């Protein structure tokens, strides 16, 4: 038991890496996913086709395999990334594909009449997007996206398989010294639970704040 | 009503896949005139209206507002207007929708102000004054800060009208604006339209309110099967019932169900 | 950049070892299939229990669902395989341990699916059942469950596909499924790009083929709502 208590600072460092990986992945995938999502809905057909194909393929690959593909597959092609960045890149690609679908779902759920009303008062396309579509899409996008944030945190545990010392890897290393797997895995599970449960609670609060504007 | 027509539609045609909704429509509206379009459902009334501000792309014929071709650079070449040009033309035609289509994330006042701010580029203060003016004209000054979800159907539609007329359009298009309303809310909306007619607003409206069309419009157009089957001053049109069988059928069915 | 010049693609050794991938793929599908069956039983029992349960039971069910959903599957796999046998006197092989984990995991997601499915059964149907004089159990068996099954089919299909992808995590405890097969070939041949290219295609094609098949099946059972 003492060994576990002494290992707490080490676990906290791991937790920090987990949070860092998750934060980078969530931020990058948000930007990429929103841009590509809008491209998927309103872009010219070759772009739409390309984004649809990419998104479908990426979502069809297990995230673990995608991480290996990026980590082992890029160096022979001449691109060397550290295990940290390879993992972040793979998770970002994966997450972006999901954000694209959240965007598509959110935007296409807005009634056609909204776009038409914007046309009727003379707004040009970027204005209709900025003032009519996106503000409304925002609140439909938020719940699934916030749910997806917890997925990113959970997915980040896979970076441990590349040797990145995140929370998962830190736990395994402490177990390697103490030979007490059960208490440490339970402790680790509780730490992940604490992060994700607070995130999903936060998302419920945000959802409620945005839900007062129902048509 | 020849050279001075504000809206001039010639030989307008439009198909959805195999289905030719508009066959060859000729219709004109003079400045200050109120024209109602009636007819059985599926006769193409709404499509006609939506062609006038190019929400529907039409296949053949021509639509001109104030001498400018709608949607295309000119009548003959069929070259589409650019996005900015098209938006500019749409700003000249107000439209009120059957399902209101208010922006649910904006208050009543913000709904009216959006076009004034972003299309007309009015300063905030002026845009707000115009919005307040029109909201008070439709009797909703006290609801300026309400979201659409907090308004009744009739109130929402009145905001819809304020949003359209605040842009100071040359012509107002009204697409069955009372069909989605509970019966007791219809009159508050029609009263607003009546007032606009008195003020000289040019209007083209598709409606099922025959009685309203009779007393509020200068002219009624009866459409059937994608064609204008009859038109004239309300009383003249009603007199045509004797000779026009389709009109007779339509009106009799109507009075049987609605009254 | 020199590396990119020097690397020559060669699939020969992938094809000679293809049996590892083929067997791996079958095992992946098998693991996913068994897990969704057990998971569906867990999910259904808990969903029905939840609807009629008191507060304590509800808290217990929610606790299980929330715990599983908020913890990485990788950690759960380790916990069950390495952690549990140290305190409970059980020993099981890696595949069995993984099936236990994935079933519990699937169960947590399916509780929610079935719960909303039960809620989505139109009230009129239940009233009709009542009017016919069916007992509560009969209403559940003959009205609620069949209707719910049709409503939840799309979600079940999606869950199966994501479980199929999740089986790749079994490779970390050396279950010889598809990802493990890929790693095995890689260790032997160092044909890293080729083996992961083929593996990726296998996952994507199999996943979408199954999804396509399930969608056809759903269409046959579709219920108008």
UniProtKB/TrEMBL annotation, chain A:
Q: Which GO terms describe its cellular component?
A: ATP-binding cassette (ABC) transporter complex
Q: List the InterPro entries.
A: AA_ABC_transptr_permease_3TM, ArtM/GltK/GlnP/TcyL/YhdX-like, MetI-like, MetI-like_sf
Q: Does the keyword Cell cycle apply?
A: no
Q: Which GO terms describe its molecular function?
A: transmembrane transporter activity
Listed transmembrane segments: 20-42, 182-199
Cite the Pfam families for this sequence.
BPD_transp_1
GO BP annotation list: amino acid transport
**In which domain of life is the source organism classified?**
Bacteria
Q: Which PROSITE patterns match?
A: ABC_TM1 (PS50928)
Outline the extent of the ABC transmembrane type-1 domain.
15-203
Subcellular localization(s) per the UniProt record: Cell inner membrane; Cell membrane
User: According to its record, how does it sit in the membrane?
Assistant: Multi-pass membrane protein
Q: Which family does it belong to?
A: Belongs to the binding-protein-dependent transport system permease family. HisMQ subfamily.
Name the UniProt record assigns to this protein: Glutamine ABC transporter permease
Lineage start: Bacteria, Pseudomonadati, Pseudomonadota, Alphaproteobacteria, Hyphomicrobiales
From TrEMBL, chain B:
- One MF annotation (Gene Ontology) recorded for this entry: ATP hydrolysis activity
Q: Which UniProt keywords apply?
A: ATP-binding, Cell membrane, Membrane, Nucleotide-binding, Transport
**Record InterPro entries:** AAA+_ATPase, ABC_ATPase_HisP-typ, ABC_transporter-like_ATP-bd, ABC_transporter-like_CS, MetN_ABC_transporter-like, P-loop_NTPase
User: Per UniProt, what is the membrane topology?
Assistant: Peripheral membrane protein
Matches recorded under CDD domains: ABC_HisP_GlnQ
Sequence ranges assigned to domain ABC transporter in this UniProt record: 7-250
Instruction: Spell out the subcellular localization from the entry.
Output: Cell membrane
Against SMART domains, the record matches this protein to: AAA (SM00382)
Cellular component annotations (GO), alphabetically ordered: plasma membrane
Q: Would you identify the family this protein belongs to, as annotated?
A: Belongs to the ABC transporter superfamily.
User: PANTHER family annotated for this entry?
Assistant: AMINO ACID IMPORT ATP-BINDING PROTEIN, L-CYSTINE IMPORT ATP-BINDING PROTEIN TCYN
Mind telling me what this protein is named?
ATP-binding protein
TrEMBL record, chain C:
As for family, the record states: Belongs to the binding-protein-dependent transport system permease family. HisMQ subfamily.
Topology relative to the membrane:
Multi-pass membrane protein
Q: Which GO terms of type biological process are on file?
A: amino acid transport
* SUPFAM superfamilies per UniProt: MetI-like
Where does the record say this protein resides? Cell inner membrane; Cell membrane
A molecular function annotated in GO for this UniProt entry is: transmembrane transporter activity
Quote the protein name from its UniProt record. Answer: Polar amino acid transport system permease protein
